[in-house]
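User: Design a sequence. Structure:
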């Protein structure tokens, strides 16, 4: 059976490597991005390019998005020359980004009116895993639609989870990132307070890592706080965005999260201090200078 034609919008570090992986596995790709060099790299490997999301969607069996915010996703969907204007009946949209679940469900309903399915499928792991087809993929949407794209997702991910109805993927990703980023904020401040109190940071790590606080996130924080190696690969700006989305989701659910509010306030303050491009454990530098 022939492989579906895939239209892919968003060729950043993750998206660009995902496209390369799909090309290596024999898929026909149509790509689009504001970064012309990223588009050219895909075209050099055999992809074609589109001048608009409408044009891309009209020629694709599966449209994939790897974009940074819900606002950008909605713009790509609803613009006059956007996906909704060109997408063909029977096709499927897959959103790999991290978006607000309420926005995802709204888009899904509007696509369904045109006979188009949608899967929200946020990602775990790194761009290096994307290039090798070894991502963790948290997919959600009705089972019939999921089955239509399952084999393609399995070519992109080592672990592909189906989590239920549309929006459950983005919900799970936001909960996951709330846990992870709150943990990094707490551990980074622990190292900062130890330093300010005259306690050796390496010794603090040696003590904490022998107990139940030990985790990969602690190791990432230690790598920066002790060894000055910043290797988590997730920026303060992105963490700040995701915590904001988590708080919006919590509000939509009619509840609140004081813990997330605290983490979000710290990330926003670090962002405002000019640290947004740094990896999340670099929030240590903000804590070291924080005064009463």
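Assistant: Done.
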């Amino acid at each position: 059976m022939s492989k579906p034609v895939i239209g892919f919008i968003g060729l950043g570090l993750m998206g660009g490597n995902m496209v390369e992986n799909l090309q290596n596995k024999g898929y026909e790709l149509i790509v689009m991005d504001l970064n012309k060099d990223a588009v050219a790299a895909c075209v050099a490997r055999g992809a074609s390019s589109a001048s608009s999301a409408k044009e891309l969607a009209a020629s694709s069996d599966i449209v994939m998005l790897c974009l940074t915010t819900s606002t950008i996703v909605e713009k790509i969907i609803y613009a006059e020359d956007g996906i909704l204007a060109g997408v063909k009946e029977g096709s499927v949209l897959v959103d790999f980004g991290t978006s607000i679940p309420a926005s995802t469900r709204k888009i899904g309903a509007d696509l369904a009116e045109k006979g188009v399915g949608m899967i929200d499928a946020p990602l775990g792991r790194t761009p290096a895993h994307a290039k090798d087809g070894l991502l963790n993929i948290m997919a959600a949407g009705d089972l019939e639609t999921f089955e239509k794209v399952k084999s393609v997702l399995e070519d992109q991910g080592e672990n592909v989870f189906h989590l239920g109805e549309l929006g459950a993927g983005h919900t799970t990703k936001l909960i996951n990132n709330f846990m992870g980023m709150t943990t990094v904020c707490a551990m980074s401040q622990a190292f900062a307070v130890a330093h300010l109190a005259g306690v050796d940071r390496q010794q603090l790590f040696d003590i904490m890592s022998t107990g139940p606080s030990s985790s990969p996130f602690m190791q990432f924080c230690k790598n920066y706080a002790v060894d000055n190696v910043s290797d988590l690969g997730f920026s303060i700006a992105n963490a700040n965005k995701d915590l904001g989305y988590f708080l919006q989701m919590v509000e939509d659910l009619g509840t609140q999260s004081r813990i997330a509010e605290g983490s979000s306030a710290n990330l926003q303050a670090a962002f405002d201090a000019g640290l947004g491009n740094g990896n999340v454990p670099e929030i240590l530098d903000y804590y070291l200078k924080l005064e009463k």
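The beta strands are 6-9, 29-32, 48-49, 62-65, 92-95, 117-120, 123-124, 135-139, 157-162. The longest strand covers residues 157-162.
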